[in-house]
Design a protein that fits this description.
Layout lengths: L2 H11 L3 E3 L5 E2 L5 E2 L1 E3 L8 H18 L5 E5 L2 H13 L3 E4 L12 E2 L7 E9 L3 H12 L3 E10 L3 H9 L4 E6 H10 L5 H12 L10
Parallel strand pairs: 5-6, 5-8, 8-9, 9-10
Antiparallel strand pairs: 1-4, 2-3, 6-7
Helix pairs in contact: 1-2, 1-6, 2-3, 6-7
Amino acid sequence: MELNQKIAEDLLSIRAVFFRPDEPFVWASGIKSPVYCDNRLTLTAPEVRNDVENGLAELIRTYYPDAEVLMGTSTAGIAHAAITAHLMGLPMGYVRGGSKDHGRKNQIEGKLEAGQKVVVVEDLISTGGSVIEVVNVLREAGAEVLGIVSIFTYGMEKGKKRLADADVVNHSLTDFDCIAEVAAKTGYICESDVRRLIAFRNNPSDESWISL
């Protein structure tokens, strides 16, 4: 079985990715979504967690063999960066959403030297805004950001454009299309729902997918 399909099955099995096209979730932005994603649940499912962390390590070895440091996004990427770094024998740290207002007022936690080759570890990517902020902080600190690894990506056009504009590449263990396909094959959703899910992914602000 391909890695992306295995991870898709894992995430569905623990409902880290939960599809509900007939009763959409509402995001903080007000957008109605047929999917809810909470990859933090992988941390409490040891077998799935093992697949995820070994998968992230495999992505890094394949696409970023020169990686010297792993940096997690705050907060969801921290645990995954720590476990993956442990598996690979690499140092790790994480980037805060903003600088601390006390002590040394760090935004980057952990030792990072200028010129070090860094891979950012993220749990999921939708529009890409938050992970690009992390990339920019690391670059401003003098790091050479090789790229990003993540558990799941929606593959939204806005996110892909933002990553391209920031000149950074992401490699995910699985993506929206794969999970939708696996969910249909396993009876988690109906085959007819896949078209609605892809319509949402292609244009989240257009709610016409609800009535398809």
